[in-house]
Amino acid sequence: MTQNLSSYKIFYTVAKYENISKAAKELYISQPAISKSIRKLEESLEVRLFNRSSKGVTLTDEGAMLFSHVEEAFSVLEKGEDKLRRSLELGVGHIKLGVSTTLCKYMLLPYLNTFIKSNPHIKISIFCQSSSETLDLIASGGIDIGFVSMIRQMKDITFNPTGEIKDTFVASASYLDNLRLRGCRKENYLSEGTLMLLNKQNMTRKYVETNLLDCIDTSESIEVSSLELLIDFAKIGLGISCVIKDFVKDDIEAGNLIELPSPVKIPPRPVGFAYKRGATLSPAVKQFIGDASLMKR
Fold it and tell me: Is the pTM of this model over 0.90?
């Protein structure tokens, strides 16, 4: 296209009104400026676009051909503007969110339920993987935002905490009874029992091992792919599982699981929303983060 959009806007308006004076009022520019723009367009295209008379202007056959395409183009632009305007009014948008299955089920799901009811026109695509993989996706631009546990600050990631989680060890009463029958003392449960941990790539596993490095040997532990399986395996007496305390609170209160003392205090971990530092966030993502301040801590 050899001409800029403003030249075709002037051409379109003059053709619509068939009058340069009316077009000037519509576009808030002078009549000489309109005449000059039309003349330059005709010179560039090497064709006469208007027949001029004392009554006004009318399109030539060539001008009518061009007008049909310009009219269609401006109609598409107007529809685009209307669609955008309606989207903003309705709160339409698309959020690509990364979160681990565990955090999604136990922490994010209630918030998602509330957010979707308040913002039904916002589409949310959820990518379930570990927190470390979610952070990698944020850094590469694969997703807009992640709900993660952060064990260290990252220079290219902005983190908005919404709460915290605490790691603990649990086992069934029957498993602990068997340890006692084997002569295992209470303070040695973790060192002599069968430990069940998440896989070594998991952020929770790394965090727990960092804090227990000098107290417990985890090299012989059973690796499990999900927290849900860790909880289920502990319930059936397979061993001692490292889990997130809030997620087994009901089982502990019901006596299905027994919480074991840790040889060292494991500090709580913050959880919240993470996104690429300096990224331009869409209105939908901003709404999502803003509403997260209401999330139950």
Answer: no
